[in-house]
Amino acid sequence: MVNIRSKSESKSKQILDAATLLFTEQGYSSTSMDLIAKHANVSKQTVYSHFGNKAELFAASIKQKCDSYQMTQVSLEHGTEPADVLFILAKRFVAMLTSKEALAVHKICAYESKSHPQLSELFYQEGPERMVNDVTKLMAEFHTKQQLSIPEPRFAAIQFLNMAKGECWMRVEFNTKKQISEAEINSYLKASVALFIKGYSL
């Protein structure tokens, strides 16, 4: 039973990797299930047995990409300072947000929103919404452990994630000539974390 599950999970990842590559390089409309099957080196029937349709596969590829940055694994461990946890969270968030795949999916949703309006909804549910929900739990934990005063954890989560995006995301999104260096990003995120903690201090 373990081997069967392992093989099934391996096939799913194989399909997801191929789908993610094709979606980000060719867009949603130009990527067919046949093409995904070919690139994944599996049959079309195998693709459909793992994922019911292309929209479901698109959503799953977004979820896998988000999970690869371990956003959901950032938690408040015993004795860990909020500033340390938030800085790690912010770093992973910016890295994910500015990745080639994330930028491509964002553009796909914007470009194909009229012909495929469900794409934006799928992207939001599997990307931003999941992220906000996970960070909301972290904010609630800060509040419960009386490390910060956060009576509205969801508001705080949205504030923090949007503050973390900063100039770096804007410049990458618009592909400006000048980009923000790693040192500048770290400096900005540390200052943002300090400001956030000051705003929600007890």
What do you see in this structure?
With 202 residues, the protein is mainly α. It has 9 helices and no strands. It has helices spanning 2-26, 33-40, 44-50, 54-68, 82-97, 100-111, 118-144, 153-173, 182-199. The chain starts with a helix and ends with a helix.
Q: What name does the CATH topology of the largest domain carry?
A: Tetracycline Repressor, domain 2
Rg for CA atoms: 19 Å
Count every beta strand, where a strand is a DSSP E run of 2 or more residues: 0
Number of helices: 9
> What is the CATH class designation of the largest domain?
Mainly Alpha
Unreliable stretches: 1-5
Relevant CATH superfamily of the largest domain = Tetracycline Repressor, domain 2
| Distance, first to last CA | 51 Å
Helix content: over 70%
Strand content: under 5%
Overall pLDDT metric:
87
If classified by CATH, what would the architecture of the largest domain be? Orthogonal Bundle
* Secondary-structure content class: mainly alpha
From N to C, what is the helix and strand string? HHHHHHHHH
Overall geometry comes to elongated
Structurally, the number of domains stands at 2
Chain-wise SSE layout:
Blueprint: H1 2-26, H2 33-40, H3 44-50, H4 54-68, H5 82-97, H6 100-111, H7 118-144, H8 153-173, H9 182-199
Helix pairs in contact: 1-2, 1-4, 1-6, 2-3, 4-7, 5-8, 5-9, 7-8, 8-9
Summarize the model shown.
The protein has nine helices and no strands. The chain has 202 residues and is mostly helical.
